[in-house]
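Readers outside the structure-tokenisation community will struggle with the description of the input data as it stands. What matters is that the chain and its backbone geometry are given together, residue for residue. For illustration, here is how one protein appears when written out as sequence plus structure tokens:

…
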Amino acid sequence: MAGKFCVSLTRSLDDPDRATVAFVVAGAAVASGQETMVFLSIEGVRLAVEGVADAIHEEGFLPLKQLMSSFVEAGGAILVCSPCFKKRNLNPAKLISGGVIVGGARLVEFLAQGAACVSY
């Protein structure tokens, strides 16, 4: 039986290495059969806007945009903190494919179901 795995990401352009590694780990989790979600909060929500991840390509890793799209294609979910998104005046019409704006209760529900969680 597959377990649940959460990657909490609070960084984006301010720490592209951390953002990249978070999606590498998330990709590994979903590839191993875990029901996996990435929860973007604080500065991490910027990655939920189309085009933001395009310029991030850390040496030794695939481009972040590719890591993110592969994660979603493999069945991973990208949940975006609604208050964090609104605070930064980001445009929901430019939300990436696979991104879903949610409240914190959605994260709590997922974790309460026994999900392991790592934070970046």
Remarks:
- Residues 4-119 form a domain with the Hypothetical Protein Ychn; Chain: A, fold (CATH 3.40.1260.10).
- The longest strand covers residues 4-9.
- The chain has a mean pLDDT of 96.
